[in-house]
Amino acid sequence: MGCPYYYDIRQCDFDPEEDNYATYVQLPAQRLAMHTGDQPFGSQSGDVYFKMLDDFMRSQREDIEFLMEHYRTLIYNGNFDIICNHSGVLAMFDAMTNWSGIGEYYDAPNDVIMSSINTFNRE
């Protein structure tokens, strides 16, 4: 595609403010709310990444079905997002066999929620 922006295939540029979350989660009030103690943000990400390498392409559908059967759950995906793949999430729902709410899911309205990330090219 020639565009490195994987959250929206229609955009080639990164919002310069998009990485402000790293500063935000380091604020004392946020650290207290998230119960992170003195652990610096991002210091563990390499460890987590390498421990999960074998799980990246493994299906988690059964785990998700279990969670959805017992808890209110939000599944996020974007139709222009390469990582949170919309078609893949729909296929996962089609393959569900153990979630009692699947019929209700198919009967529910499908609402589009516009992300503010699509509006960063302000004049």
Topology:
Layout: H1 21-24, H2 28-34, H3 45-51, H4 61-70, H5 86-94, H6 102-107
Characterise the protein shown here.
The protein is mainly α and 123 residues long. The chain has one domain (18-119). 35% of the residues lie in helices and 0% in strands. It contains 6 helices and no strands. It has helices at residues 21-24, 28-34, 45-51, 61-70, 86-94, 102-107. The model is unreliable at 117-123 (pLDDT under 50).
The multimeric state of the shown protein is single chain
Number of domains: 1
The helix tally amounts to 6
Give, in order, the helices and strands: HHHHHH
The percent of residues in helical segments reads 25-40%
Short key terms for the protein model shown above:
6 helices, 35% helix, 0% strand, globular
Summarize the structure.
35% of the residues lie in helices and 0% in strands. The protein contains 6 helices and no strands.
